[in-house]
Amino acid sequence: MKEWSSFVGFVIKEFYHIFRDRRTAAILFGMPVIQLLLFGYAIRNEVQEVKIGIADLSRDAVSQAITDKLLSSGTFVLVENLKSPSELEEAFGSGAMSEAVVFEPASGREIQREGSIDIQVITDGSDPNVSRIITGYTASVIRDYLSEAATALDAPKGVVPVPLMMFNPGLKSVYLFVPGLMALILMLVSALMTSISITREKESGTMEVLLVSSLRPIQIIVGKVVPYFLLSFINVVSILAIASLVFGVPCRGSVLLLMVESLLFIMTALSLGMFISTITSSQQVAMMISLGGLLLPTILLSGFIFPVASMPLPLQVISNVIPAKWYLIIVRAIMLKGAGFSVLLQETLVLVAMTVVLIAASLRNFSERLQ
Amino acid sequence: MKTAVQVEGVTKTFKTLTALSNVSLSVHEGELFGIIGADGAGKTTLFRILCTLMLADEGEAEVLGLDTLKEYRSIRSRIGYMPGRFSLYTDLSVEENLKFFATVFNTTVEENYELIADIYIQLEPFKKRMAGQLSGGMKQKLALCCALIHRPDLLLLDEPTTGVDAVSRREFWQMLGRLKEQGITILVSTPYMDEASLCDRVAFLQDGTILAVDTPVGINRLFTAPLFAVRANDKHKLLTRLRSYPYAGSVYAFGSSVHYTLSRATASIEELERYLLESGLQGVTIEKIEPGIEDTFMALMKTDNERLHG
Amino acid sequence: MGEPVIHTEQLTRTFGEFRAVDAISFSVDSGEVFGFLGANGAGKTTAMKMLTGLLLPTSGKASVAGFDVFSETESIKKNIGYMSQRFSLYDDLTARENIRFFGGVYGLSSSTIKEKSEALLASLDLLAVADSRLSDLPLGWKQKLAFSVALLHEPKIVFLDEPTGGVDPLTRRRFWDMIYEAADRGITVFVTTHYMDEAEYCDRVSIMVNGRIAALETPAAMKESFGVTTMDELFIRLVRPGSGETT
């Protein structure tokens, strides 16, 4: 019973630290919301208002129709009508346009005769991502026109695939980013806060006094984790609220299940922070490890941006130790696919195992002496 | 008399630096024992070994009859430790700090209040103030309260008065005196020589080696040469003239005078006085005095040159 | 002793309601060793910061080395040396590297630095260890080196903030020898200390209490006028007339 009261005293003290230091409070509550809004708006794969130049050497109904169709889509803005392809280089070099469409002479006749057409699509390859997206988009507009024209002419027939993107029919990128951001933010905030709060005590010398007291290491460790665990829960709720209210990301599965899994992930992140703090002795190093050491792997190896399946084998193997990878699978499955717990058993168990291992390692590493 | 602290041949090295070298000492129960030494003498390392935060490379240390290696948990709950650096929570108020340390030791402020009452009463007007905003002397008083709140049998105070002004230092030592009367054994370290005379016994520490352990009076008996206090109007000139005197032993400034020993027992004081007057100094007085702790410590010390080059 | 190198009139600094330094007026002559004493929190640090050009006074007048503390802080910084117990030299550099670095900071030419550093290392008997890291040197040597480095650019005044804190009694005295030598060369030394015996080594001392200068005299005259025999007693009499701390 007495042990319990000293533990409660410890937790209360932690809350004082958090609420009295405005920076801590700001990082804890402000950072997740701001990051989500920032990333949510800034990172999008949809492109808009692409500056386009058209060199129409054909000047007939067909080239005109395709041009109209391109410009009416809303994605492209015409900046220049080029007289000859030789003007292209300068226009791209100055950044005046990001795409040019060149119609070969006599396109209309060719389509009548052969059912095909030569159109050159040139893009600014210095930004490959944008380049790839707008090329694809242009091609699909032209394909669209061709199929319409083909029906009208009753000319060549072929197999036309009709794609359907399950769970995200509009292929909205925000569906991709919100789960990734949840993982990233919860990981960083939780790991950062715990690792800093322990190393701060080491730096200020208060850890020395705590060690020379009746407190057990387990009380110190759990006492550090509990406050951040409770506060991170508020973060989960606010992130989910923003995801659904601001970005319109649905939660097709059980919200309760999502909460429980998120809390589990927070626990993993907190234990990781704890582990970091046992192997470092300064706040600076702890911060560098938790930010520098976790940020990139979490973004690059978790499947947040790049699919794990397309990574080289060694990286695929490494990605398995990134907690965010497993959490990302869980969040996507619950939010977008409406999956239930039975499907996610394996991922959940992986997170549980990681947490147990990290806590055990922290306890083992937690030095009861100064060295 | 029972022994509160027993140290036998303790050695501790950090990489190339020998912090403690074959240190042995024993502190009796109920004693106020001082470790006197400058920064880097090994005081903090010794304290950390005694409060079980560090292990000695060689030798043994017992605290309250318990082994610092095997029974460190029992030791930790029975000692009060005040590290050299201010180690309270600066973002917690005076009251909150005290309460926190009470709960950490499974006790309450009320339970042991009478022990800290006469110290805490001075802090009471500022009890809502954040510990980080207290003046140096007040911080040390609060730290002492926090170290005492679980009524320890032994207090380990590592340089509690460093950087604290002369008045607060005096008050702090008065508090230690009262705690001693309550039967608490106190081991305290300090770089201030004048504080040595306030201890029951002292140990001189330099470069990890104990130079002497004795009562303040006993320590002073180690100083055997006749000692003189010399005064004149121009202190700096007096110092340089005394040093260039052919029979000069040690020449050290001491407050308003210069403490001086002769290298030759037969050298005469009258001769010295004449020499000083001839040098153009005025108001020259020479009187024989009893050595103090600081005189003795300096006589026992190795010089900087020996330390650096030898 | 000639022109005062430090001169203040009603110098005041407030932080909100709190008058950290409350209308202090004093002068320090050239070549004087001036002891600046006071309890923790009496306003010493604030006063030092104003005199070294690090903090702007709220009101009053002050000049240091002939420059005004309100408008000419940059010139002040060029003409003073500063050394404190907390910050002095870089522990991970060697003695020689420290001298070179600070010489550069003070704007000395590299040939002057080279010349001075050899002379300095020789006079401090540090040539043998000039190229080992400072962290390997005893504290006393570091303090002496720090003091010499603070004098590298031959300032008119050197401010020493608790220069001998934590140092052993022998080294403290060696340090004071250096202070006297500097004063003999005409450098004004402005020094704070918690060692009351060191107060007696000063030509004159001032004792600050609650932001004001409570006494300013030669140590002997001060003891006499208060009818006490040691500086210790005098200090306690002034700082704590009743009991209980006043911070």
Strand order of the largest sheet of chain A: 2-1-3-4
Main sheet summary of chain B:
6 strands, mixed
- Could you give me the name of the CATH homologous superfamily of the largest domain in chain B? P-loop containing nucleotide triphosphate hydrolases
Determine Rg of chain A (CA atoms, Å). 28 Å
Low-confidence stretches of chain B: none
Order of helices and strands of chain A: HHEHEHEHEHHHHHHHHH
Domain count of chain A, please report it. Answer: 2
Please, could you describe this protein's structure?
The complex is a heterotrimer of chains A (371), B (310) and C (247). By secondary structure, chain A is of the alpha/beta class. Helix content of chain A is 66%, strand content 6%. The mean pLDDT of chain A is 83. Chain B has 310 residues and is α/β, with parallel strands linked by helices. Chain B folds into 2 domains: 3-216, P-loop containing nucleotide triphosphate hydrolases (Rossmann fold, 3-Layer(aba) Sandwich), CATH 3.40.50; 227-290, 2-Layer Sandwich (Alpha-Beta Plaits). Chain B has a 6-stranded mixed β-sheet with strand order 6-7-8-3-9-10, sandwiched between helices. In chain B, strands 2-1-4-5 form a 4-stranded antiparallel β-sheet, covered by helices on one side. Chain C has a 6-stranded mixed β-sheet. A 4-stranded antiparallel β-sheet of chain C has the order 2-1-4-5, with helices on one face. In chain C, strand 4 and strand 5 form a beta hairpin. The chains are: A alpha/beta (371), B alpha/beta (310), C alpha/beta (247). At the B-C interface, helix 5, helix 6, helix 8, strand 12 and helix 10 of B face helix 5, helix 6 and helix 9 of C.
What's the structural blueprint in terms of helices and strands?
The complex is a heterotrimer of chains A (371), B (310) and C (247).
Chain A (H helix, E strand, L loop, with lengths): L1 H19 L1 H21 L7 E7 L4 H12 L3 E6 L6 H6 L5 E5 L3 H8 L4 E5 L4 H26 L19 H32 L1 H6 L5 H29 L9 H25 L3 H18 L12 H7 L3 H15 L7 H21 L6
Parallel strand pairs in A: 1-2, 1-3
Antiparallel strand pairs in A: 3-4
Helix pairs in contact in A: 1-9, 2-7, 2-9, 3-6, 7-9, 7-10, 7-11, 7-13, 9-10, 10-13, 10-14, 13-14
Chain B lengths: L2 E12 L2 E12 L3 E5 L6 H8 L7 E6 L2 E2 L4 H7 E4 L11 H11 L8 H11 L12 H13 L5 E4 L8 H16 L3 E6 L10 E6 L2 E6 L1 H5 L6 E5 L3 H10 L3 E7 L2 E6 L6 H10 L6 E5 L3 H8 L3 H6 L1
Parallel strand pairs in B: 3-8, 3-9, 6-7, 7-8
Antiparallel strand pairs in B: 1-2, 1-4, 4-5, 9-10, 11-13, 11-14, 12-13
Helix pairs in contact in B: 3-5, 4-5
Chain C lengths: L3 E12 L2 E12 L3 E6 L5 H8 L7 E6 L2 E2 L4 H7 E5 L10 H11 L4 H14 L15 H12 L6 E5 L7 H16 L3 E5 L3 H4 L4 E6 L2 E6 L1 H8 L4 H9 L8
Parallel strand pairs in C: 3-8, 3-9, 6-7, 7-8
Antiparallel strand pairs in C: 1-2, 1-4, 4-5, 9-10
